Amino acid sequence: MNNNLDSKVASSGERVIIHADNLEIGYNNKPVVKAIKFQLLAGEALALVGINGSGKSTLLKTIVGLLDPIQGQLTVLGKGPGSTPRRIAYLSQFHASGFILPLRATDVVRMGRFPNRGLFGRMTREDNEIAESALHTMGIEHLADFPLRSLSGGQQQRVYLAQIIARQADLLIMDEPTAGLDAAGREIYLKAISSELARGAAVVSATHDIQEAAHCNQVMLLAHRVVGIGTPEEVLTPGMLLETFGIVITGDRPGVAVLEREHGHDHDKHSH
Q1: Could you tell me the CA-to-CA distances from 95 to 43, 119, 137, 163, 216 in Å, in that order?
Q2: Spatial separation of the C-alpha atoms in residues 216 and 170, rounded to whole Å
Q3: Predicted structure pTM score
Q4: Which end of the chain has the lower number of beta carbons within 10 A, N or C?
């Protein structure tokens, strides 16, 4: 794997944020998914869709550098995964900070600025304004001074999403970002991500939500293998969704499907 590539530019002149070719991912040299191949450009969103344990979280962790690829090529922002942490915002499914420390919502969001200032660096006026703007974007500015632990699950998720937005990163990596959100919260999230894409960031998210995936530029269906990757219109078809989930009920609109799926959070079988 080449870890020292210069920033790539696609043939169209757009900047390549992630490039994967014949990528094999897994734990302890045991493959979870093989033969992954895709390219994500600046301003594009990729949704990873599949049941629990299908490889979604494993791929996200590999992109951010928490897991080493087993084989194949993977470059992130022109370098090897994990080489540019300040330019990446990562939202996992488990958030420890709010339960270890008595933090307010605003404190958690301001933590999104730490990579720019350092853990003990002084927050600037600009940092505070960015954090306040992120709270407003997620519709939770009125909760800024509330202890995180006092908020509902959906409100806490909005706080963590605001933290990701406050990073102003080049690449956003999110594992089940809409988990716990109600319909209004999901709508706010989609608008926020549209703004992130408009400023040139790229987004990769793992989701069970087909409607959420349909808003992305690319969709990758995973079932311990790549079932398909392409535009939502190409990939979110009854046949491919049946291969991915095992059961599918087609909706009234073309390209839309409502799925019955396993309940619970999306953790790959080797995740902790």
Answers
A1: 27, 18, 21, 12, 25
A2: 17
A3: 0.84
A4: C
Cβ contact 50:33 at 8 Å: no
Residue 24, SS3 per DSSP: strand
Q: What is residue 247's three-state secondary structure?
A: coil
Pairing mode of beta strands 249-250, 257-258: antiparallel
Q: Are the C-beta atoms of residues 89 and 203 closer than 8 Å to each other? A: no
Q: What is the pLDDT along the chain (272 residues), one digit of tens a residue?
A: 333 333 455 544 569 999 999 999 999 999 999 999 999 999 999 999 999 899 999 999 999 999 999 999 999 999 999 999 999 999 998 765 555 567 999 999 999 998 877 656 688 899 999 999 999 999 999 999 999 999 999 999 999 999 999 999 999 999 999 999 999 999 999 999 999 999 999 999 999 889 999 999 999 999 999 999 999 999 999 999 999 998 765 554 444 444 444 433 444 444 43
Please enumerate in sequence order all residues whose Cβ is within 8 A of that of 1, keeping only pairs 6 or more positions apart, or say none. Answer: 69, 71, 72, 73, 74, 80
Q: CB-based contacts of 25: which residues, under 8 Å, 6+ apart? A: 31, 32, 33, 36, 55, 58, 59, 62, 67, 69, 70
Helix (H) or strand (E) holding 60: helix 56-64
